[in-house]
Amino acid sequence: MALILENIAKIVSLSEKEQSFFLSKVEIQNHKAKTILHNAGKICKHSYFVNSGILRSFNINDNIVEHVLHFACEGWWIGDMYSLLSQKPGNLFIEVLEDAEIVLLSKENQDELYLEIPKLERFFRILTENSLVAHQERLMDNLSLSAEERFEKFCSKYPTLIQKVPQKQIASYIGVTPEFFSKMKARLLKK
User: Fold this and answer.
1) 96: left (phi over 0), alpha (psi -120 to 50) or beta
2) What's the farthest any 2 CA atoms get from each other in the chain?
3) 58 near 95, Cβ under 8 Å?
4) CA 117 to CA 90: how far, in whole Å?
5) Which pLDDT belongs to residue 157?
6) What average pLDDT does this structure show over 36-61?
7) Are 88 and 96 in contact (CB under 8 A)?
8) Residue 190 scores a pLDDT above 80
9) Over 90: is that where the pLDDT of 158 sits?
10) How many angstroms separate the CA atoms of 125 and 131, rounded?
11) With contact defined as beta carbons under 8 Å apart, do 126 and 11 qualify?
12) Other C-beta atoms lying within 10 Å of the C-beta of residue 10
């Protein structure tokens, strides 16, 4: 549990008593690769913190094409934010890509933590703000950058994922077909 406490300590300082209370409100789970933690069409009841492993969130459109929205590596948070915050059915799947140890924080426990430890509300507000900024930046990148530039940004943001995540998922994340991605990557390697 040290990793999640370190993650929180980057933004707010918790006393030992507050740390213990926080830890009493989370649950640790281990999952094998390919496990679906959350299904589209369901109400998201947890946010997930990755102690180890890799997770992704994705959507499947009407043509059965996957669109990867986000990857989460060790030390990152992930969830279907729309569903978690609105408590309405969401449109994202959350899947384990690499065997993972995950910390789950339920919406109700998170709300209780806000009341008992108000500085955690600040922590999660800042996480949400950072997520909003990242999503806006990604949207602008998708509108204005070439596929090669988007791939370069992906490599900068997720340097450890290049060898661990299937190429078709990287292609989906940057918004190109697997075939285009393969050709583009071959071109980049020749440079």
Assistant:
1) beta
2) 57
3) yes
4) 28
5) 84
6) 96
7) no
8) no
9) no
10) 10
11) yes
12) 9
Percent above pLDDT 90 for the chain:
86
For the entire predicted model, the pTM comes to: 0.92
Query: Phi and psi (nearest 5°) for 76?
Result: -110, 155
- Average pLDDT estimate for 113-119: 96
Could you read off the pLDDT of 95-113 as tens digits, one per residue? 999 999 999 999 999 999 9
Q: Any residues with CB less than 8 A from the CB of 109 and at least 6 apart, and which?
A: 25, 26
The per-residue pLDDT for 72 is: 94
Residue 39 predicted with pLDDT over 90: yes
In the DSSP assignment, the letter for residue 161 is T
CA distance 170 to 106: 29
- Round to whole Å and give the CA distance between 112 and 5: 18
Q: What share of the chain is helix, strand, coil (3-state, %, to 5)?
A: 50, 25, 25
Q: CA-to-CA distance for 161 and 148, rounded, in angstroms? A: 17
Count Cβ neighbours within 10 Å for each residue of 155-182 and write b for 16 or more, e otherwise.
eeebeebeeebeeebbbbbbbbeeeebe
Dihedral Cα 47, 59, 51, 103, nearest 10 deg: 30
Residue found by looking up tokens 């919406």 in the block: 107
Number of H helices, E strands in the chain: 8, 6
